[in-house]
Predict the structure.
Amino acid sequence: MRTKSQGVGTHFQKRTGISRIHRLGICGAVFLGLLSIHAYGGEKSSGEQRVQVAAYYFPNWHDETQPKVTHGEWEALKNAKPRFPGQPQPVVPLWGYQDEADPAVMAQKIDAAADHGVDAFIFDWYWRSGREAKGPFLEKALDEGYLKAPNRRRVKFALMWANQDLGPGSPGAINREVFDSFLDHIVKDYFSSDSYWTIDGRCYFSIYQLQTFIDGMGGVQQAREALDALRAKAVAAGLKGIYLNVIDYQIPANAKEVYKMLGVDSVTSYVWVHKIELKDFPKTDYTWEADAYYKYWDAHKDDYGVPYFPNVTKGWDPTPRVPATEPYNGKKYPNTPVLWDNSPKRFKAALEQARQRAEQLPVGQRVVTIYAWNEWTEGGYLEPDKLHKLASLKAIKSVFGIAGRGGNGK
């Protein structure tokens, strides 16, 4: 995910103050091993105790990309060049350069996800607030692709409000009037869908930049009032309410208190690089980054007073978005170091670490988020490429199993 308007935003930033980071007997170990094989290694796994897998979906892979940028999306991927010896660029999608707004194309994605243990797509969702460009942005993949796919209920969907700056004149810090302007839309057109993802019976809704939201509302109390308006509209529509998640990209200094005031239900990450600096240029070892992230998670999992969903980052390589004329120096997004050797085997090991941690969470709220289903030009994608094909998806299935939904998800 990244800022779309006049160019590329600052998705990769260093975080000030962020660190870089009873024994069982033989019989007990054997028992737990068999239990793990049964619950996670088989064809189906269901029930509240199963860890759910939700993959972020970046919806900008269709024919009407707006606004057009000279180094964006499929064209950027096609034109990518190696920036250092051995860098595997350009990567080539196994399914080709598809139009995700085609329901048949989206149906293929849904089947592949469902067949390999992905329970939900969390769509990056945008709302423009500028004077000239107002309203919904990049909804075509969801409205024309996913929602019209006949098998959509095999994989649920949810929204992560990507409330970042969308270029000059469209700030991420919107006021209450702008916030209120899209509430009816998301409740009626999305939350009320029979395929919307719920946790604890409530509609999952995530906020990308919490501090940006608070700033736009004018403070924590005003932010709470705005969220309560959204909750009230959901209940008035016959829904059970909102399950509010926030991304740990912007964590308030007094996070636990703020989250309680806002009624936050859980926290998770979007991508590891938000928390763990890429230490080596031009490439940082994938397993080192994974271990550093999970050490960070272990140290902070009890800081917030709510469940902290662990994240797995499939990869990181935004160099396709670096203009060809720009030297590669690793100093500013998208010109950053890359994660190196994110093989399916190493990805599976990271999935195992995430699953073990998610199992510590309350029943019914055991979730792992994955970056990402299709962040092709940032190197984080589960969709098959010509090199590894379906190996990454097979890794998810082997670790988590699949939910007991079949056919059209009915």
User: Anything to note?
Assistant: Residues 220-236 form the longest helix (17 residues). Residues 76 and 320 are 6 Å apart (CA to CA). The mean pLDDT is 88. The two ends are 31 Å apart (CA to CA).
